[in-house]
Design brief:
alpha/beta, five-stranded mixed sheet, 5 strands, globular, CRAL/TRIO_N_dom_sf, Alpha-tocopherol transfer protein-like, CRAL-TRIO_dom_sf, CRAL-TRIO_dom, phosphatidylinositol bisphosphate binding
């Protein structure tokens, strides 16, 4: 699976949108590396290209980038269930790939957005293991940090095959759910344009509303709920979508298998990163506060708002 790079026009738009100056970016990468070397609890081995992608994802805010880098390394030390034993050939990862489709489309949208799609392959609720899915998702995100940057991201969550029992495993009061949200929302420099939930049953709006206290307000505003795929195609170029959606990117099976192969190609890298890419909290000079957006205690009752499914 090769992720097609932005066109010259899309690169120009990326530069214009963030007013990116290449020389300033180089200086900021140097500043980040110097800062990392001064943090006794953090590793400083990350290559310049990845540091630049962290800067880009944080809109070139040095302080924001430092915070995300710190969180990136901290969750790797404090969440071994997600960040240890990340062998793409393990039974755990291979089982998740078999039971769930999760892949990034090879082509960008015309605007320069990268599209990621999730859908169940196996509707058996006992096969829906959030911890395994979270591990695989962050593995894919790490690979993308190694390989590319894009203007922003579009996430498509296809609820085909979901039942009430599946949604019960998404309770925002569960520690695993909160941890997954921390890993994806706060520990990666992920620029998010839109999240589309498609093939939604009526209960989806209430399930989604239960999560609003745990999410940043600007993120919730990017959510779109659709009862069918036709509504999705109003937002995403149809031709870049999977064949099952009327596009030409390949079948779900082909795309899922392509990302299986991509992850397997990083087997050695994942093993090496597991040893060095984490914080040493015993050496932290200043205690890092928990993420206010995810780890705070919240009351879900009374927090529902109406989310319209079109």
């Amino acid at each position: 699976m090769t992720l097609e790079p932005p066109t010259p026009e899309q690169l120009k738009r990326m530069k214009q949108e963030l007013d990116q100056d290449p020389e300033i970016t180089k200086d900021d990468v140097k500043r980040l590396r110097e800062w990392l070397k001064k943090q006794p609890h953090l590793p400083s081995h990350m290559e310049d290209e990845r540091l630049e992608r962290f800067l880009y994802g944080c809109k070139f805010s040095l302080e924001r980038t430092k915070h995300v880098l710190d969180t990136y390394y901290r969750v790797r030390a404090t969440s071994p269930d997600i960040f240890c034993n990340r062998d793409p050939l393990s039974d755990e990862v291979q089982r998740n790939i078999k039971d769930m489709s999760y892949f990034v489309l090879p082509k960008l949208t015309s605007e320069g957005y990268r599209v990621t799609i999730f859908r169940l392959n196996n509707t058996d609720v006992d096969k829906f293991i959030l911890q395994e899915l979270t591990k695989r998702v962050v593995m894919c995100l790490d690979v993308r940090l190694k390989e590319e940057k894009c203007l922003s991201n579009i996430m498509v969550v296809d609820f085909q095959g979901f039942t009430l029992q599946h949604f019960a495993r998404f309770s925002p009061t569960l520690a695993g759910v909160r941890k997954a949200m921390l890993c994806v929302q706060d520990a990666f420099p992920l620029r998010l344009h839109q999240v589309h939930f498609t093939n939604c049953m009526p209960i989806v709006d209430k399930v989604a509303a239960a999560f609003t206290p745990l999410l940043k307000e600007k993120l919730v505003k990017k959510f779109f709920f659709h009862s069918n795929l036709d509504k999705l195609k109003r937002h995403v170029d149809p031709e870049i979508l999977p064949n099952e959606y009327g596009g030409t990117a390949g079948t779900f099976q082909e795309l899922n298998d392509a990302w299986r192969s991509k992850l397997e190609g990083y087997q050695k890298w994942f093993a090496e990163e597991e040893k060095i890419s984490k914080s040493d909290e015993s050496r932290r000079l200043k205690k890092m506060p928990q993420s206010a957006s995810v780890l705070q205690d919240v009351s879900v009752e009374g927090s529902f708002r109406k989310l319209v499914i079109d």
